[in-house]
Amino acid sequence: MQLLIFIIAYPFLWFISILPFRLLYGISDGVYFVVYYIIKYRKEVVRANIALALPHFSQEERLLIEKKSYHHLCDMFLEMIKTMTISSAEMNKRFVVTNLTIMTELEQKEKSVMLIASHYASWEWLLSFNQKVSLKGVGVYKKLANQHFDKLVRNIRSKYNTELVPTNKTISLIADNYRNNIQCIYGLASDQSPKIDRIFHWQSFMGVEVPVHTGPEMLAKKYDMNVVFAKVKKVKRGYYEMTIVPLSENAKSAPDFKITEAYIKEVEKQIQEAPEFYFWTHKRWKHRR
Q1: Cβ neighbour number for residue 272 with a 10 Å cutoff
Q2: pTM above 0.90, yes or no
Q3: Residue 194: which of 284, 271, 289, 118 has the closest Cα?
Q4: What stretches of 83-128 show up as alpha helix (H) in DSSP?
């Protein structure tokens, strides 16, 4: 059944991927109408999250953010499909790194880099960053149940010198690379809620005390990595800018949780600047004090 579903869906996805962006966003507008007004995908979760994180906004302002966030979500989904056939030249034009020299300097230190991102703007196109650096890119992702779609997603996300590794194999891969003196840049999006049995630290996030992921910091400390934050900004529809924000060049000596706290503050800054581009559908605040 998994294969049948994939065989039916793949030609449709490929056709969408070859469309010009003008038509692609026309389809996105239609998908938005269906998702927001008919399916109402996780609308209660989104509304509750926005109200909790942005209580100083009026009800009308929060509703506008809600609608814009769904529109952006649909855009990003179509952009991910577009990645199947988009050229490197087109991607470089649409996803720009503003301060690449910082990464060039870090590469010369002969240490791996932990690049922490958030579910904001475009974490899909963020993977194209790896074609701009010399370090091998490793992206951590959650494996899909359908093995055929999982392979497709890995192929899409691996176009730009990136190796995709499932979450349950991340630690062993990093350990092997460290032992063999292989420097990599490891990319993780860590702004979601951790599992109950993996809670080690609580922190205020958008004014609410919540558990936060500490895995990236722990790995950076154990395997002596430089740590940076990937701040992604949506310039306009289909165009993004990424700015590298250094968080630590000596993770081993950093006080426990300071790197994690700095990361969460950077995510907050993103949301406060333009909250409509955050991924509000996740149950980020399901565990809180």
Answers
A1: 12
A2: yes
A3: 284
A4: 88-94, 100-107
